[in-house]
Amino acid sequence: MEGAADAGGADASGSGIPSALGRWREAADHLRDALVQWRNIGRLDEEACALSNLGEALIELGETEEARSCLRQALALGDAARPKFLEAAQKLLDSLPTE
Predict the structure, then answer these.
(1) How far apart are CA 51 and CA 39, in angstroms?
(2) What stretches of 1-97 show up as alpha helix (H) in DSSP?
(3) pTM here?
(4) CA geometry: angle 64, 27, 25, nearest 5 deg
(5) Over the stretch 65-84, which tens digit does the pLDDT of each residue have?
(6) Residue 62: Cβ within 10 Å count
């Protein structure tokens, strides 16, 4: 699945290697940790990256409701996020079945 990691955010979020290897649970754990760190230091752009990548990992794990929540949070950051992360989050959100 092409997603946020393919949009160039994997390194910033801290999940690149596990997600690239298909180790989605490990990637999700790393992304949750990264998300806390980015929020603590107020880096909204990196928060959007982590949320988008976490959404992708959760989709791969079949956790669509949590994925949907993460992707919506990423999109809600709007102008504070880099466009490529917003585009990836929207693409992933659009790939989910309707509620």
Answers:
(1) 11
(2) 10-13, 16-20, 24-41, 44-60, 64-76, 83-95
(3) 0.81
(4) 60
(5) 999 999 999 999 999 999 99
(6) 8
